[in-house]
Hints:
Helix content of chain A: 25-40%
Domain ABC transporter (chain A): 2-225
Distance between the termini of chain A: 18 Å
Largest sheet of chain A: 6 strands, mixed
InterPro entries (chain A): AAA+_ATPase (IPR003593), ABC_transporter-like_ATP-bd (IPR003439), ABC_transporter-like_CS (IPR017871), ABC_transpr_LolD-like (IPR015854), MacB-like_ATP-bd (IPR017911), P-loop_NTPase (IPR027417)
Distance between the termini of chain B: 35 Å
GO cellular component, one term (chain A): plasma membrane
Number of helices of chain B: 25
Strand content of chain B: 15-25%
CATH superfamily of chain A: P-loop containing nucleotide triphosphate hydrolases
Oligomer: heterodimer
Order of helices and strands of chain A: EEEHEEHEHHHEHEHEE
Number of domains of chain B: 4
Number of helices of chain A: 7
Largest interface: A-B, 29 and 26 residues
Family (chain A): Belongs to the ABC transporter superfamily. Macrolide exporter (TC 3.A.1.122) family.
Number of strands of chain B: 26
Radius of gyration of chain B: 34 Å
Protein name (chain A): ATP-binding cassette domain-containing protein
Shape of chain A: globular
Amino acid sequence: xxxxxxxxxxxxxxxxxxxxxxxxxxxxxxxxxxxxxxxxxxxxxxxxxxxxxxxxxxxxxxxxxxxxxxxxxxxxxxxxxxxxxxxxxxxxxxxxxxxxxxxxxxxxxxxxxxxxxxxxxxxxxxxxxxxxxxxxxxxxxxxxxxxxxxxxxxxxxxxxxxxxxxxxxxxxxxxxxxxxxxxxxxxxxxxxxxxxxxxxxxxxxxxxxxxxxxxxxxxxxxxxx
Amino acid sequence: xxxxxxxxxxxxxxxxxxxxxxxxxxxxxxxxxxxxxxxxxxxxxxxxxxxxxxxxxxxxxxxxxxxxxxxxxxxxxxxxxxxxxxxxxxxxxxxxxxxxxxxxxxxxxxxxxxxxxxxxxxxxxxxxxxxxxxxxxxxxxxxxxxxxxxxxxxxxxxxxxxxxxxxxxxxxxxxxxxxxxxxxxxxxxxxxxxxxxxxxxxxxxxxxxxxxxxxxxxxxxxxxxxxxxxxxxxxxxxxxxxxxxxxxxxxxxxxxxxxxxxxxxxxxxxxxxxxxxxxxxxxxxxxxxxxxxxxxxxxxxxxxxxxxxxxxxxxxxxxxxxxxxxxxxxxxxxxxxxxxxxxxxxxxxxxxxxxxxxxxxxxxxxxxxxxxxxxxxxxxxxxxxxxxxxxxxxxxxxxxxxxxxxxxxxxxxxxxxxxxxxxxxxxxxxxxxxxxxxxxxxxxxxxxxxxxxxxxxxxxxxxxxxxxxxxxxxxxxxxxxxxxxxxxxxxxxxxxxxxxxxxxxxxxxxxxxxxxxxxxxxxxxxxxxxxxxxxxxxxxxxxxxxxxxxxxxxxxxxxxxxxxxxxxxxxxxxxxxxxxxxxxxxxxxxxxxxxxxxxxxxxxxxxxxxxxxxxxxxxxxxxxxxxxxxxxxxxxxxxxxxxxxxxxxxxxxxxxxxxxxxxxxxxxxxxxxxxxxxxxxxxxxxxxxxxxxxxxxxxxxxxxxxxxxxxxxxxxxxxxxxxxxxxxxxxxxxxxxxxxxxxxxxxxxxxxxxxxxxxxxxxxxxxxxxxxxxxxxxxxxxxxx
Lengths: 225, 785
């Protein structure tokens, strides 16, 4: 599903050039659940942003379902993203002014799904995430675990092929963290490819494979399944 | 999607009530100001544009050289109208117009009413619809009168006035042949009745003299006749009918009457269009300043909304969609502000009308008005929202969602530039207001040359002329009046001028124009004018004084008299006059201009007005009561009407006072709007720097040092605005003052005072938030962070 070859990303300031990704290459098959691990600043999040088409690489190739997307412009990236990729963040990133229902509904609006269909799909996913009873609440009225469930619901409501999770349990206690990991595992078992950046060895154990990074390069790979 | 946008927009408005209040208040004040000014501008540009044949209507104008300069004027000889109708096939209709105030009576009801004596074509040229009567024939007969609805109501009450008889000056009877819809506010014409021109002959006002330019002549050209063709054809009409060889005639189109009436060297150089443009610019700036508030507050809050932008982008929103979302929000706010603005306009309209001397109203029934309002609201929303929309939608979701995003704090940011723009305009307006008011005070303080207090005048009407001697004697004997004189015009108005005078030593080729004023005697005593040389006109002591004249200093100078007393001055048919005295250059017309050379002719001339000096030792109300009683006794049909010269003189400053008051009002509004924005910016600044303030306090900074730190950034912007505003305001006011010969010098202290006021206002606005942030507990602020 994903094939990156010699991916490079630099961050430049007036005085310093930092290599975030250094000729990184690997592939991820459809249906895989992969953890990316490594110390802070090793390039995990940069990689996730490029994979999620939120950022573009300075060099190298990125094939998504066989299509070269590394040089896609903003419009093409946005189109590909909204139909194929869901995101889960450490800090949930829900819109405070929208209710649970409206937050989850948002991706469907941008993919121009009709109102009735939107309602059906949002309710279905909220039900699945067991937060249906909170549908009219605002994010500030929810616990961290509930907020992350909403974020996961939003990520999956469009039935994306790929979910990118950036430390999804980083702001949660262990109980809520486990719940979220179980949710992701369930989604993966239903066929969704998941790439998760994490510091947690515990969370990584839920995945099929761990790619460990250091200084912008993949140093080892552990296959768990 | 729209529903989603609206939800977010309303929830944002509700959540940030202070921000919303400031935004909507500022924008609505700006919009209300702009709407009021636009209503005023509309009333100006629509002046006399409602006439159906307006593209073919012209006023006849003359141009000729006096004193080496080409002058233009809009009064014409009385026979011109008839000549145009008779000899010029290009003319479809022509009408002469002159104004008169007459006593209009029905039964025992007497009213002094002002109307026009005109030709029947007047109603064919102009679109003043008759509610009753036939416009084509209404003024066709000598005994006919057309009256306005309002006059009909005043004279006849609810009864039908059509076909009824009205007495004019108690001597002539006229039958109402037309009742006209009341005149709209946006016309130059101001009359309550129209009388046929034939009445001019009855009262002896008509003449066939091509050298007397005393009436307006209007023409309706035939279709296809252009302005250039008319000018070419009419150029020599006066020359061909008289000995005058240097007066050219041209036409001035109705479309230019109101706004383009200032001529210099024979060419139109502007007129009220200058004020209209100025007000247009002010309206635009006030609206822009309100929009700038919106821009600044929206971008200042950007960090709060950055997350939303990031999330929307992540889930698939493209930049265009986000731009339209934010523009939609600003249009929504603009719509809310527009509604508030409409209420403000409605509530303030009567005050604004009083201030501008207008009768503006909101045309609620006009579809065009609502369409224009919608466009106005949309446009305001787009102007206010465009910069924030592009600014916010440009955020990179990566940095926003990772929490590494911080809005730029560069040395020069668009926000700072916008604040500088706001305060530049506000400071500029403060400077202008001060200088306009200084100019008014300067002109008001100018010596008029006569004593205005206790001086009143009234027009000679009815039997006053017949009983003048008796009235005069009785007034003086009553003790209410100490002196009395008949004059040709009120002492505050220039009614007549002439270039037909000759004297010994005059250059035969020189064409010099004199202001003409007539008095029957006691002029100096009544008005308080000093006699500089010779004596006043006094026909009782000097019977030959019926042909005596006084000259002002400017006339003596231009005539070149070393010893003016005893000199003879001739004026065509009016014969010989001899100079008996010299008076100072007293102000008859504009207090801003030099006094023109003036000839004051003695009792042989014509009179319209009586000036009375009331006894200053007695109460004015008693003096007036006695004076009115005496006039009523000898002229019972006419309600006595006296005007105080000091009040009338005060009217000369009305236009400048209006500009000064409006400039002050706009300056005040601009400051209010700008300060609302500054206050909100200071609030956000304090919020954004809360951690910095906490750290500084922990490290030992005092409240005053933190307050200074927080205020300095804004004060710098106000100071930059001041530096930008000063030369602009100086240039603007310098240009404005050039139109006045008597003008106040622009002094440095105006700028100094404005600078102090601006800094004071800015400090007062910012200090609340700065002090609040400075005295906050650092432990709390650091924990918050």
